[in-house]
Design brief:
This protein is mostly beta strands. Helices cover 1% and strands 50% of the residues.
Length: 720
């Protein structure tokens, strides 16, 4: 968040305390205070069963994730190998390698034309092959009916000097002997060149080939379908190019795009509008702007149906994994590693991401996306594990393009973000909308889950462990600038800053919250908040332990708290700290609240703040001192500066100073059926406070029941 942690000002007791007369006409009786209902435990993220070949890995002792590699990173494979999740480095030719006779395996009985580099006086038979691909293509066309098959032997096949491309038309298949041994090369890299181009109106099979050079290694034109297997494609400006309405289905494909980043250098796998690509058991790397992307030329029609399916594959060593004007993106069992960013889902695109592993991701150049998964369209997630992401992990974002604005939407379940050291946010709805079940962020810098810019964030079973302060961020759950946060079941351990922060005109509802450490839970106006729309937090069934500064706070904000248990709130930072429940110019209402072991004050209403709680129990407030602490500590309840205590069915005990303190300008309390007992002083009031205001409570069994002195409690505005 772009603000500061919640804080309160200074309280001072300027005059020593003396004896005061007992209160008159006190109403006694506490009929039975109800303790808070404990929160429902948070369900763990479910990443298992792992995909075949992936291994189980335990994260921070209690979370199992699935790793696609034997080590903790993607392997660096040999040029002739594929990096395959669940397998590791695998030869592109598989176990069989190149055939001993140098010819493709499993060829049909008839209609095959053979080509071997350097052959002399050929007629296209196996015994007397042609020497060039051009001769072979002409002969294969002559087979008729589009049934001809072109068979290339092991060796270097050059398309020839000055040849822009080899056009494959009117044949059924082009087969090499093996991808590591059958090389087809085009030395030209000028615009419009390729090694092979498959022309319109046909379906063709390609296999066991290594294509090198051209502007694109393989160019599939409109209206054509190519099925490829064991293909190694290399080109400085796009390994595979598909024109509008072209199709490609490939397995065991290695597509290496150029590493040069320039405006005229396309993606390694480059789709035009309406193209459809399927990649299975493949590896894609490089590409000017990224590995896989779709765009269209100005003025071209944009037919619907651009689709991408990637399964059991790796995308590595690239500025960006997947992006572009793709109607449907499906990713299953894929690793994206050593990349500048992962996926950018543009307006109008829909993505389904299942068993996605992202790691070692950091922007490589100025202007690169600073989010691993940027969603301006729609994305559905299932079992997504991201680690070592240097910027934002997941973002549903808002963008204004021609026409109406677009707000990204993310849904799904089972997401883990781990070891994310360089960002200010991890999962963020910045104008977009996120709805996740079972999500976990741990060992990450910045805020874990954040919503702003009128976005919405809905979480069911969220876990946050060990976030670190980064700039002004580090909250576990944060909403500001009109954001809407809705959480059911959350476990938060050692956040870098606030466990929950609701600011400005944001609203949050959190049910079943368990917090250990951090700076507590609160709502605060950090700027100019509309009077009719202050920050609002609804908190139900919460347990907050070992928080610093405060446990629950409303500062120029409204909080509704039901079934909240606060324990061992410690002092830290600017005085006063160690406050269990604080209403500072804000309102905290609710029922069944318990405060135990607060280091300074159990509960306080200051500067017009209002505590309106039924069934409040404050116990064993401590009086911790420190070198910089200037305020008295050890009071169970305090009101001052126009603060209001509106309590019904409450009990205060075990305070080392006063069970209840009412300083000058404490507004008329609204008390019913209260019990103050077992404190050093039962009721401590300023001598200008009318004791009769405190009817409705029973004060007994304290060291001193009633005492009056001159109290000045004048906290300044919170430090922002």
């Amino acid at each position: 968040m772009r603000g500061a942690a919640l804080a309160i000002g200074v309280i001072a007791c300027l005059v020593g305390c003396g004896e005061a007369p007992a209160l008159a006409e006190q109403d006694a009786g506490v009929e039975g205070i109800q303790d808070p209902i404990p929160p429902t435990p948070t369900a763990a993220v479910v990443m298992t069963p792992c995909p075949p070949g992936w291994r189980e890995h335990r994260v921070l002792e209690d979370q199992i994730v699935c790793e696609p590699w034997a080590d903790d990173r993607a392997p660096t494979c040999a040029p002739s190998e594929l990096a395959l999740p669940g397998t590791g480095c695998a030869p592109i030719d598989g176990e069989r390698g190149c055939p001993e006779d140098g010819w493709p395996r499993d060829l049909p009985v008839g209609g095959v034309i053979y080509v071997r580099p350097g052959a002399v006086d050929g007629d296209g038979t196996r015994e007397r092959p042609f020497a060039t691909i051009a001769e072979g293509v002409t002969a294969a066309r002559a087979v008729g009916g589009g049934r001809g098959v072109l068979a290339l032997s092991v060796g270097e096949h050059d398309v020839g000097a000055g040849v822009r491309l080899v056009e494959l038309r009117g044949i059924a298949a082009l087969r090499g002997a093996c991808a590591t041994g059958t090389v087809v090369r085009n030395a030209s890299t000028e615009s419009g060149t390729a090694v092979l181009v498959v022309t319109p109106g046909q379906t063709m099979e390609l296999g066991d080939l290594h294509l090198i050079g051209g502007r694109s290694a393989l160019w599939v034109t409109s209206g054509t379908m190519v099925r490829g297997s064991r293909l190694w494609l290399e080109a400085p400006a796009g390994a595979l190019r598909l024109d509008s309405r072209a199709g490609f289905e490939g397995d065991h494909v290695r597509a290496d795009g150029g590493q040069v980043r320039a405006d005229d250098v396309p993606y390694a796998v480059w789709l035009r509008a309406g193209a459809q690509v399927t990649l299975r058991s493949s590896t894609v790397s490089g590409g000017g702007p990224g590995a896989i992307g779709a765009d269209y030329r100005t003025g071209d029609p944009v037919p619907p149906g651009t689709r991408l399916l990637v399964e059991d594959s790796a995308i590595v060593d690239t500025p960006l994994g997947i992006t572009g004007v793709i109607d449907e993106i499906t990713v299953r069992r894929v690793a994206v590693e050593r990349a500048g960013a992962g996926l950018l889902i543009v307006p109008g695109s829909r993505a389904e991401l299942v068993d996605l592993r992202g790691r070692d991701v950091a922007p490589a150049a100025a202007g690169d996306p600073d989010v691993f998964l940027s969603v301006f369209g729609q994305a559905t997630l299932a079992r997504v594990y991201l680690s070592r992401v240097q910027k934002v992990a997941i973002g549903a974002l808002r963008i204004v393009v021609e026409g109406p604005e677009s707000r990204g939407r993310i849904g799904g379940a089972d997401v883990v973000v781990d070891e994310a050291p360089g960002g200010t946010e991890n999962v963020v709805a910045a104008g977009g909308h996120i709805e996740l079940e079972r999500a976990r962020v741990e060992r990450a810098a910045g805020s874990a889950f954040e919503v702003y810019d009128d976005g919405s964030l809905t979480l069911r079973d969220a876990t946050v462990i060990d976030t670190a302060l980064e700039e002004n961020d580090g909250d576990a759950l944060e909403a500001w600038d009109g954001g809407r946060l809705d959480v059911a079941r959350a476990r938060i351990v050692r956040p870098g800053r606030n466990a929950v922060q609701v600011a400005d005109d944001a609203r949050a509802t959190i049910v079943d919250l368990d917090v250990i450490g951090g700076i507590g839970v609160g709502a605060q106006c950090t700027g100019e908040c509309p009077p009719d729309a202050p920050p609002t937090l609804v908190l139900e069934r919460a347990r907050i332990r070992d928080a610093s500064r405060f446990g629950l706070a409303a500062i120029d904000a409204n909080v509704r708290a039901t079934d909240v248990d606060l324990q061992d709130i410690v002092r830290s930072g600017q005085d006063p700290t160690g406050v269990g429940v604080l209403a500072y110019h804000g309102t905290i209402g609710g029922e069944r609240v318990r405060v135990r072991g607060a280091a300074s004050l159990g509960a306080a209403a200051l500067r017009g703040g209002r505590l309106a709680i039924a069934h409040l129990r404050v116990e064993s407030t401590r009086a911790e001192t420190c070198d910089s602490c200037a305020i008295p500590a050890g009071d169970g309840l305090m009101c001052a500066g126009g603060g209001v205590l509106a309590l019904r069915e409450f009990e205060v005990s075990g305070s080392p100073r006063a069970g209840m303190t009412a300083a000058f300008a404490c507004a008329a309390p609204e008390l019913a059926r209260g019990l103050v007992h077992g404190n050093a002083i039962g009721l401590l009031t300023d001598d200008r406070v009318e004791p009769s205001l405190f009817r409705g409570i029973e004060v007994r069994d304290n060291g001193t029941e009633f005492q009056t002195t001159m109290l000045v409690v004048d906290p300044p505005p919170p430090a922002l």
